[in-house]
Amino acid sequence: LVSEVLESNGSSSMASVCGSTLSLMDAGVPIKAPVAGIAMGLVTQGEHYTILTDIQGMEDALGDMDFK
């Protein structure tokens, strides 16, 4: 299975995980359970921190940590 990204504004790797699972299921490949990926990130300012879900490209680039 090959995932080709034509455009990205966030986590293309997580989109590839989700799309690959759907492709395998559609092709009839027996898998135990579907899987999904979500991009999460961490932004800090001093002692305060915020965890973001479904981060976009700018949040990925400017954030303090990317959880994948």
TrEMBL record:
One of its GO terms (molecular function) is RNA binding. Gene3D superfamilies: GHMP Kinase, N-terminal domain (3.30.230.70). InterPro entries: PNPase, PNPase/RNase_PH_dom_sf, Ribosomal_Su5_D2-typ_SF. One of its GO terms (cellular component) is cytosol. Keywords: Transferase. GO terms for biological process: mRNA catabolic process. This is Polyribonucleotide nucleotidyltransferase.
